[in-house]
Amino acid sequence: MTAPEKTAPEKTQPLDTTAAEQLRTKVAEQLAASRARSTVLTDAVDETDLVAQHSPLMSPLVWDLAHIGSQEELWLVRDVGGREPLRPEIDGMYDAFQHSRASRVELPLLTPSETRAYVAQVREKALDVLSSSPLTGRPLEERGFAFGMIVQHEQQHDETMLATHQLRKGAPVLHAPEPPPGRPLPAREVLVPGGPFVMGTSTEPWALDNERPAHSRQVDAFWIDTAPVTNGGYLEFVEAGGYTDERWWSEAGWKHRVAAGLVAPQFWRRDGTGDWHRRRFGVVAPLRLDEPVVHVCAHEADAYAKWAGKRLPSEAEWEKAARHDPASGRSLRYPWGDDDPTPVRANLGQRHLQPAPVGAYPAGASPLGVEQLIGDVWEWTSSGWHPHPGFQVFPYAEYSEVFFGGDYRVLRGGSFGTDAAAIRGTFRNWDVPIRRQIFAGLRLARDATPAELDARGVA
Asked: What one-character DSSP code corresponds to residue 190?
């Protein structure tokens, strides 16, 4: 729902005619791309699957699609455009805060055909609003922020619908080519120098409120692995009895492991010969050892890290490893620089429907040599979900503020199911530490010892 605008991207110079038209074109293309993906995910199954609840953790796919349209109507058609409501009677039904995911299947939802007609009507109105918006002036319209927010919202729900497809039982309905091959990395870990760096952003036009503002953060020197933990690495933990040894688990983690009966990452299964397989979007295949492990919760990530003699990086450490350029001293938009993601830099947008093998994206490496920080798997950090210093709500508290504190844990970097429009070096995700259906893995870090720093001549 809309709320008073409290803060926003920094005001910039008004757009000239050419710049405004270029931005309109970009917005229209991003809106079309997000809708095309939503269509693929919902047209892939029949009406029975669309209205079914495939897991109590997830909404019916048809609810997600109508919710996408409802938010687009609220923000672009009604708020930015000032137009009359199209379907005001359904506002509450598609408000994520009024109904839990488990209960949404019981609501009198729009049918699949009604939902498709509704989102198409909303999109027609939204594009009409886009054609007349100055894309500057009012904070919500500055540099197309509201349109960018809706693009990201739809792409985020597309990733959620992709996770629902993973939980769905039945024959495969989604298909994609294999990712590029991996390669051996030059080093297992790299040293990230200590000192301050700029965390967050005040200039990224479509950054969300929890990414703001830019601020200086002091981080001590530490080591970080150049790649996420692989299936092969994690399998060693499983085979060594990691799930039955309480030493590696936190008190809360062990309690959850026992209650949930965890014995391996979600969707892993051992066959009659003792070999491990994994199920992915309806396909069961042998476990690929060089892929980043996925579908582990934060408790599993913590336990593995302790077993391996390391730890998870803090959120600030992760962002410094991903953005800090020692040569210039500045923070980059992405690990590879300031240019947008491309298919040779990162595995995004469900292009491959799986994490790519380690070493598959050398063009996406950070200046320090850390790879696959963007895409492939969300990476659990050790940090709780808190605002940056100077945080202000924009444009509504229910996106970030109401979740701060509590049991939430920060994840960074995006996954193969995250679209390029919905990820950047400052983007922050969060979830409860028991969550496994999301496309989450981990990367390890460790403290740098004084002896190691002395040997390298580092203060």
From this structure: E
| Rounded Cα–Cα distance for residues 213 and 221 (Å) | 24
Whether the model pTM is above 0.90: yes
Residue 189 bridge partners (DSSP): 225
Q: Return the SS3 of 345.
A: coil
Q: Does 155 lie in the same domain as 38?
A: yes
Say if residue 158 is exposed, middle or buried (CB neighbours under 10 Å; 0-12, 13-18, 19+).
Answer: buried
With beta carbons less than 8 A apart as the criterion, state whether 122 and 78 touch.
Answer: no
Whole-number Å distance between alpha carbons of 80 and 137? 12
DSSP one-letter code for 54? S
CATH number for the domain harbouring residue 39 = 1.20.120.450
pLDDT digit string, tens, across residues 117-157: 999 999 999 999 999 999 998 999 999 999 999 999 999 99
**Which residue stretches of 261-402 are H helix?**
298-307, 315-323
Do 154 and 198 lie in one domain? The reply is no
pLDDT tens sequence across 17-42 = 899 999 999 999 999 999 999 999 99
Among left, alpha and beta (phi > 0; psi -120 to 50; other), residue 18 is: alpha
Least Cα distance to 224 among 336, 311, 122, 340 occurs for 311
pLDDT digits (tens, 9 = 90+) for 307-361: 999 999 999 999 999 999 999 999 999 999 999 999 999 999 999 999 999 999 9
